[in-house]
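Example for tutorial group B:
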């Protein structure tokens, strides 16, 4: 079989297929560089600072005492003096090892050394000076854990854990889930540096991706190039782990500098050079023989898929020294890093393909599995052209004799398309239908990735510090997602990304108590997505040249064909090229006045998104509808999607022609923060922030505005009013941005996003603090553009009589008329016969309220324990509603639970009427134009010339989160670091409608809710060997054997997410029976063998509640809603998916080479217990034989045990 490789053409994606994209990216990057340097080096808002109070031995404040803060690695000194109240604050410091000294006339100097200042930390160092000469010095070693100086809640992942914990993919973002209240939704195999792991981060019920991501204190968000999202977008730059110093996960941010999120913030700090040269060279390698096989492959006795991965790089930092020219010690420092990734990760797809004899029309071997009798039974193919009423008056079809479709009925286009399927190559899964899972193929994921970082830090003088950084990464990836290669492939061929980022910062000291900080950061991110290979000729399948002409560039791709019955799809949706630009600037000032440390600034951002060749093209979908016995009710004993397609019919499909776009958004947020040290025990953190988050604007006004519900549509004059239920007139029409007096933005600028922040810390004693806070934040908002008119969609018409008879065979020309984009030129005539949507013009920014109260206690010198109650409330969450819904009374007339009958809507007298829109030109390309009849209930809509009309961002959603969170930390000298967290939580959602027609509001457990979460992480340097506690004087040979061993481990447990039933299923009750002990048998929900029933039409036209599964004894846990039935209010069933647990281990051996040079050999094991996790969710289709089970044959959702060998040379 042809396997994917990264060809030279793929590697040149940016240079050839995306050459215009590349030029645009370079142009935009140069613009950003110019802006950055014209702004004289933007600055990072460093949240790290020392604060404290200087008193004499009696506790009296000492004013104008001199404070010196010295970085012990770079020797850079920052000085200030105390205020009249004896207080001081030294902000804008980089994380690192410091000493802090205080001196005053008539007192001895006091120096605190060995103080580790972590990212985002406000460290409190108090002084009690004793009378004496200033030349006398009292030195205090401060290597113990420091109590918090602010009410913020979070977790610092320090450099030891970043460098020593086993990281799958060496992505530091994989550690984001180590804080209490934080969860990562990414699978272990999706933790690579380029996987946008942060987009799956949820903090304290705020939702995935709704967090502020900072790098060196500045926004690291790249504007999304593919589409606007209601979350913070893709990440800009991910530095190699070797260049990361540490980072902090701030789960309850009460500092006003943080915003544009509903959750928390992550602030990552990169390494800065010191006066000593430091660096590393490393290689991580994976090979097939090191890995365990998947559960699925073991079950089928298949070998371990081949895997290779090489990740290598280097990092170097130190002073800038040019021999005989320049000595940069104490002044100029550099950091360089490079990383390269090349991998072929295993992947196996088990799916279904048609049996070869079916392609001749012969379905005589077609059977299905009957779980009631636990046996295989014939599955009958019915002729869609034979619909008739049986003796009881029920409409049914006749079967094909012998279950064989005559050759004359086989559609040539269907035969050509189906010929691209491979033949089955494995036995179907026992207990499922005879064709299910009959094809298995490797689908390796091939990746190439490069990353480069260069950083300069300059200490110009005691008053000025400057930092500059450039970062770059790119990746290319190929993988088949439907198990096929060549023209019908769907996947990534390739998926390519490139990021360029430039950052600068400048800190200036005007006076000891007045400091200025300015920053700018520019990011350009390019995405190229080719879902299938281009260069295909669609006419080779038998489609006409007129169809290819109407498709334009999309005719170069194999059309997307979706089959029911679990058959793998054919074809793809084309490609997309996109660019996202972002520019962030942040001027700020810090003023120390008395007991106040006041920070004020402006967070200003510009985001731009441009897309070209947006994915779309031609699609068809087919199921068993046309070959089942009843045209209204499906059953496992009749019909097949391949048979339906062979007859030249389809259930649906569309041709989508999408426009290029260029959208921009501006964001302004002034803020003020006051850290007020009321007493030596009590500190208040008071802040306020004001967001002006402007709505996005499309540069060329290529977007819709609102749906005007009052206007009489111009098409009214062409419609016979006698065919309308109310005689007309036809109202409603779509409007457009930037024309006819309409605004250019999707919604009005929100001007009341004021965000008060409050935090406090109260020191109960020297080891215990009480802390808490409350804050309001506003989420990033960026609704996607609605572009009816500028885009065009042509629907496939499957039937003119409500599904009784097909329009086919018509695959030879399934889209005789293709709607072309018309822009805003048609005015109110746009999207007739279709379902447009629009954004609520009075949209409000979702508001997030976060609060906490807790206690922090230090048991021993290096032990810390923290217990918090944490909560959040989110208001104005996004929701949507159909303003053109069919009236509830019309549905009730067809709902058997309300005394109605589906025939009243489907096939009974009056259910179909003359179509008033038939052959009226503005409806071309829709069923309204081509069908002479129309379902009568469609004309009961408020705006019958349209289908569903959704209004988005209605702001009536709400969520609430409550949790108990525990964090514990222990450190033993340099030898042992252990962190542990526990979270007990619940997240609820409400808002919107579970059923829009029946106006049933939704309220349920959040889909990402988990009850219990545990993390354990630690690094243990065994205290054995030369210079250690044990064997400190052993000889070097013995030390090489038993010294230098290190063990690091990371464990995560999370209870299961809720099992969400589909909207057509009602949950009634629960029953408990033991789980299967045989691991090859799928486990049922809570050990239940689910009992479901559905309403089945009887020969006399009545409906009877009939069990789907056997042995239910008349007791049903689930009921399938009848057609036109109402969705129940509370979707959550009380049933949860299985929990997950994962243990990763790193065993290292360090060898001393020379002086500071050492070699580290690493053995990293991911999923060390080799425990399979099946979190694909329970089958939620109650008519499936596997309903309520996890089909283990489809494979585990985590990776099997994987072993990685590594070597590091460090100095």
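The residue assignment follows.
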């Amino acid at each position: 079989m042809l396997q994917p490789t990264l060809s030279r053409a793929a590697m040149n994606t940016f240079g050839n297929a995306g050459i215009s994209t590349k030029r645009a990216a370079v142009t935009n990057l140069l613009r950003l560089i110019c802006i950055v340097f014209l702004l004289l080096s933007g600055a990072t808002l460093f949240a790290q600072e020392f604060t404290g109070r200087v008193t004499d031995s009696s506790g009296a404040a000492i004013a104008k005492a001199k404070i010196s803060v010295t970085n012990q690695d770079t020797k850079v000194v920052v000085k200030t003096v105390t205020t009249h109240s004896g207080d001081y604050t030294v902000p804008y410091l980089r994380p690192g090892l410091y000493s802090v000294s205080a001196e005053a006339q008539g007192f001895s100097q006091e120096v605190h050394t060995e103080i580790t200042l972590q990212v985002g930390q406000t460290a409190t160092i108090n002084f009690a000076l004793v009378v004496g000469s200033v030349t006398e010095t009292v030195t205090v070693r401060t290597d113990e854990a420091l109590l918090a100086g602010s009410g913020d809640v979070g977790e610092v992942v320090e450099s030891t854990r970043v460098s020593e914990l086993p990281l799958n993919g060496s992505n530091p973002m994989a550690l984001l889930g180590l804080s209490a209240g934080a969860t990562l939704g990414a699978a272990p195999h999706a933790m690579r540096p380029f996987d946008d792991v942060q987009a799956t981060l949820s903090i304290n019920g705020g939702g995935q991706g709704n967090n502020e991501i900072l790098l060196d204190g500045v926004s690291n968000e790249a504007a999304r190039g593919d589409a606007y999202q209601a979350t913070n977008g893709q990440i800009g730059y991910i530095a190699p782990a070797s260049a990361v110093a540490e980072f902090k996960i701030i789960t309850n941010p009460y500092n006003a500098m943080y915003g544009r999120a509903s959750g928390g913030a992550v602030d990552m700090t990169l390494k800065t050079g010191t006066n000593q040269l430091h660096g590393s060279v490393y290689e991580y390698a994976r090979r097939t023989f090191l890995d365990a096989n998947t559960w699925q492959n073991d079950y089928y006795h298949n070998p371990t898929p081949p895997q290779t991965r090489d990740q290598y790089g280097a990092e170097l930092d130190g002073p800038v020294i040019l021999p005989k020219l320049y000595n940069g010690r104490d002044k100029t420092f550099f950091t360089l890093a490079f990383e390269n990734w090349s991998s072929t990760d295993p992947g196996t797809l088990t799916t279904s393909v048609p049996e070869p004899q079916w392609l001749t029309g012969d379905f005589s071997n077609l059977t299905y599995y009957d779980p009631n009798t636990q046996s295989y039974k014939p599955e009958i193919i019915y002729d869609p052209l034979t619909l008739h009423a049986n003796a009881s008056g029920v409409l049914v079809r006749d079967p094909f004799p012998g279950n064989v479709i005559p050759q004359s009925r086989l559609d040539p286009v269907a035969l050509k398309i189906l010929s691209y399927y491979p033949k089955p190559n494995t036995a179907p899964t026992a207990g499922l239908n005879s064709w299910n899972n009959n094809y298995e193929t490797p689908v390796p994921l091939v990746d190439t990735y490069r990353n480069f970082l260069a950083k300069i830090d300059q200490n110009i003088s005691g008053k000025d510090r400057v930092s500059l950084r450039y970062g770059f990464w790119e990746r290319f990836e190929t993988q088949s997602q439907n198990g096929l290669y060549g023209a019908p492939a769907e996947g990534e061929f390739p998926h390519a990304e490139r990021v360029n980022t430039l950052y600068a910062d400048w800190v200036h000291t005007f006076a000891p108590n007045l400091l200025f900080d300015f920053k700018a950061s520019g990011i350009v991110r390019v995405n190229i997505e080719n879902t299938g290979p281009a260069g295909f000729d669609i006419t080779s399948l038998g489609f006409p040249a007129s169809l290819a002409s109407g498709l334009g560039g999309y005719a170069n791709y194999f059309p997307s064909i979706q089959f029911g019955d679990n058959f793998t799809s054919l074809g793809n949706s084309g490609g997309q090229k996109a660019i996202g630009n972002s520019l962030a600037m942040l001027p700020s000032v810090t003023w120390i006045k008395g007991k106040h440390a006041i920070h004020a600034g402006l967070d200003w951002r510009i985001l731009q998104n441009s897309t070209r060749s947006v994915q779309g093209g031609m699609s068809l979908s087919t199921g068993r509808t046309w070959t089942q016995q009843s045209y209204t009710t499906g059953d496992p004993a009749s019909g097949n999607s391949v048979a339906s397609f062979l007859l030249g019919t389809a259930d649906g499909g569309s041709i989508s022609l999408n426009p290029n776009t260029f959208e921009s958004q501006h964001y302004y947020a002034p803020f003020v923060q006051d850290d007020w040290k009321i007493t030596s025990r009590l500190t208040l953190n008071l802040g306020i922030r004001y967001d002006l988050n402007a709505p996005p604007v499309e540069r060329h006004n290529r977007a819709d505005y609102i749906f005007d519900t009052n206007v009489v549509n111009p098409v009214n004059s062409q419609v016979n009013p006698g065919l309308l239920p109310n005689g007309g007139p036809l109202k409603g029409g779509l409007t457009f941005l930037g024309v006819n007096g309409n605004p250019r933005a999707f919604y009005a600028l929100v001007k009341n996003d004021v965000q008060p922040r409050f935090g406090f810390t109260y020191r109960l004693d020297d080891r215990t603090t009480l802390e808490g806070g409350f804050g309001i934040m506003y989420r990033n908002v960026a609704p996607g553009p609605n572009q009816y008119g500028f885009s065009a969609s042509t629907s496939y018409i499957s039937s003119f009589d409500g599904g009784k008879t097909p329009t086919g065979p018509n695959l030879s020309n399934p889209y005789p008329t293709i709607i072309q984009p018309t822009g805003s030129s048609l005015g109110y005539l746009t999207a007739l016969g279709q379902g447009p949507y629009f954004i609520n013009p009075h949209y409000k920014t979702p508001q997030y309220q976060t609060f906490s109260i807790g206690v922090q206690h230090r048991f021993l010198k290096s032990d810390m324990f923290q217990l918090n109650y944490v909560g959040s409330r989110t208001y104005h969450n996004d929701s949507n509603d159909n303003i053109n819904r069919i009236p509830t009374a019309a549905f009730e007339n067809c709902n058997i639970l309300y005394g109605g009958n589906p025939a009243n809507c489907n096939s009974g007298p009056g259910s179909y009427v003359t179509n008033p829109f038939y052959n009226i030109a503005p409806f071309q390309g829709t069923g309204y134009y081509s069908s002479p009849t129309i379902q009568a209930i469609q004309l009961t809509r408020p705006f019958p010339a349209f289908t569903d009309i959704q209004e988005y961002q209605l702001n009536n959603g709400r969520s609430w989160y409550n949790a108990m969170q525990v964090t514990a930390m222990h450190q033993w000298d340099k030898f042992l670091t252990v962190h542990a967290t526990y979270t007990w939580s619940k997240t609820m959602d409400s808002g919107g409608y579970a059923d829009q027609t029946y106006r049933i509001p939704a309220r349920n457990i959040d889909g990402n809710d988990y009850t219990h979460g545990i993390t354990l992480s630690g690094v243990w340097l065994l205290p054995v060997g030369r210079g250690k506690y044990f064997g400190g004087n052993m000889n070097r040979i013995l030390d090489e054997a038993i010294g230098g061993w290190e063990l690091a481990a990371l464990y995560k447990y999370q209870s299961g997410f809720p099992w969400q039933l589909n909207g057509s299923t009602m949950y009634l009750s629960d029953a408990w029976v033991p789980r299967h002990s045989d691991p090859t048998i799928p486990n049922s929900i809570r050990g239940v063998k689910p009992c479901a029933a559905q309403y089945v039409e009887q020969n006399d036209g009545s409906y009877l509640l009939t069990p789907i599964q056997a042995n239910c004894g008349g007791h049903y846990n689930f009921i399938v809603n009848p057609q036109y039935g109402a969705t129940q209010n509370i979707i959550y069933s009380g049933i949860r998916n299985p929990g997950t647990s994962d243990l990763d281990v790193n065993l290292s051996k360090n060898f001393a080479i020379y002086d500071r040079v050492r070699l580290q050999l690493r053995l990293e094991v991911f999923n060390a217990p080799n425990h399979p996790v099946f979190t694909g969710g329970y089958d939620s289709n109650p008519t499936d034989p596997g309903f309520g089970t996890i089909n283990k044959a489809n494979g585990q959702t985590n990776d099997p045990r994987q072993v990685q060998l590594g070597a590091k040379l460090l100095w």
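The chain has eleven helices and 68 strands. Compare this with the pattern of hydrophobic and polar residues in the output above.
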